[in-house]
Design brief:
Low-confidence stretches: 1-51
Shape: globular
Mean pLDDT: 90
Radius of gyration: 20 Å
Strand order of the largest sheet: 3-4-5-9-10-11-12-13
Structural class: alpha/beta
Number of strands: 13
Number of helices: 14
Helix content: 25-40%
Oligomer: single chain
């Protein structure tokens, strides 16, 4: 695929797995920051900080795992399980993190313009029952928050802002899905369906859909991954020309307009989170190459075919410098010494970006590459991930790591997880806070 420094294999981890307007007006950004926990029914104050289930020692350090629900990558194992089976599998994901002395689970609560909680904005997720909009009979996000906290884990709720479907099967959308009610919001591109980021009503809707979860639950963070405008599809143009003509009057460059659309989403969502519950963090895990130095002398010494600034219209460096986010987790999904995108060059570049900003830097680690056919030889060495953490010890800006993905923790490919824990995670510590 074009734009991939590893040839045919796409670099984003997400690739390998592959209401409505009235409700927007009903929920104001400045609304009361008291909500009922969907799992327990208990009221949560705006700054509640309930005791987490252990007394950690040592310096706070992020040790996180991503629990992907899109395409049932990590949870639930398949669609159509009973509520009891789904709960048991989710508890296993949490217990596996605790067993390896991790302290954070990043739970994907909104994978494809749907919800893992009873949202008034979007339908129940298809990845629960197999049918979008079907009530699973329980509240996965509320359950995840409560059970994570009982185990001393932070729970970061992970939202995808614009993706509607990973295919073009509009017939599988719930009858009351927002794009059924607002077909002008939809763009089909690269064999997938997206909300159009260039329409202001879409941005406001997506922001409110996410803030609904912030109001309801005692989240430790709101989390985005690398998907903003979609990754480039060869020979196709993202169909937002009409939106650009209507809303892009202040811009002579469509790329700058697109970047501004994403900037506004990040800025406004961060402001909304802080108004509702000040201690909730806002973090982003971008594709690790902001720009190559061949494109921009301030970019990294890489030769990636995808650059977030130019291809996803996500100026991730700006978000750090402006303080719009609380932490950044670049997906440095390459081995030390990889020619096109060297782990040992990207980590120092990101350390320079965050230095002096107050934004926490964590490194996204490619556990999913360990022992996989077709990967460079380094990924067949059980010590590669452990070496990454040793390397990062020389950069005080690096305050921890996150691993994709959670189901691989118990699988322990090549013994790499056991090696990582033995070398670096012998005792539990708390995760950093803002």
């Amino acid at each position: 695929m074009s734009g991939n420094p590893e040839g045919s294999q796409h670099l984003s981890r997400r690739r390998f797995g592959t209401a409505v307007a009235g409700a927007v007006g009903a929920v104001a950004l400045s609304g009361q920051a008291l909500a009922a926990d969907g799992a327990t029914g208990t009221a949560l104050s705006a700054d509640a900080d309930p005791a987490r289930g252990f007394s950690g020692g040592g310096k706070p350090e992020m040790r996180g795992s991503w629990v992907a629900t899109v395409a049932n990558i990590d949870w639930p194992s398949r669609q159509g399980l009973t509520a009891g089976e789904q709960q048991a599998q989710l508890l296993a994901r949490l217990d596996e993190a605790v067993a390896r002395n991790l302290n954070t689970v990043v739970f994907q609560a909104r994978p494809t313009a749907d919800a893992m909680w009873p949202s008034p904005f979007e339908p129940w997720s298809e990845f629960l029952s197999g049918t979008q909009g079907m009530d699973p009979g329980w509240d996965p996000l509320g359950f995840a928050v409560r059970e994570a906290h009982a185990r001393g884990l932070q729970l970061h709720a992970w939202f995808n802002p614009y993706r509607v479907r990973n295919d073009t099967k509009a017939e599988k959308l719930a009858a009351d899905h927002p794009v059924k009610l607002h077909p002008e919001w939809l763009v089909t591109y690269g064999g997938k369906m997206y909300y159009n980021p260039g329409i202001p009503e879409v941005r406001r809707f997506c922001t409110e859909a996410i803030l609904d979860a912030v109001r309801r639950y005692d989240l430790d963070a709101v989390h985005f991954d690398d998907y903003f405008y979609p990754y480039p599809a060869v020979g196709q143009e993202f169909g937002d020309e009409s939106a650009y003509q209507e809303y892009g009057g202040d811009f002579t460059d469509k790329a700058a307009w697109r970047r501004n659309n994403v900037d506004l989403l990040i800025q406004e969502l961060g402001q909304g989170i802080r108004r509702i519950r000040r201690r909730v963090q806002f973090g982003v895990s971008p594709f690790a190459i902001w720009r190559n130095s061949s494109t921009d002398p301030e970019g990294s010494a890489t030769a990636g075919g995808v650059e977030t600034y130019d291809d996803l219209y996500a100026d991730t460096r700006k978000w750090v410098r402006e303080g719009w986010i609380d932490y950044v987790v670049p997906q440095v999904y390459w081995n030390i010494g990889f020619t096109v995108a060297d782990y040992a060059k990207l980590v120092p570049w990101w350390a320079d970006v965050v230095r002096g900003t107050g934004v926490n830097l964590y490194i996204g680690e490619a556990l999913y590459k360990v022992g996989v056919t077709g990967q460079p030889a380094a990924w067949f060495d059980p010590a590669e991930l452990s070496r990454h953490l040793t390397f990062c010890e020389d950069y005080r800006e690096v305050r921890g790591h996150m691993y994709f993905s959670a189901k691989l923790l118990p699988q322990d490919p090549l013994g790499a997880v056991s090696r990582l824990v033995a070398d670096h995670y012998q005792q539990r510590v708390h995760a950093p806070r803002r």
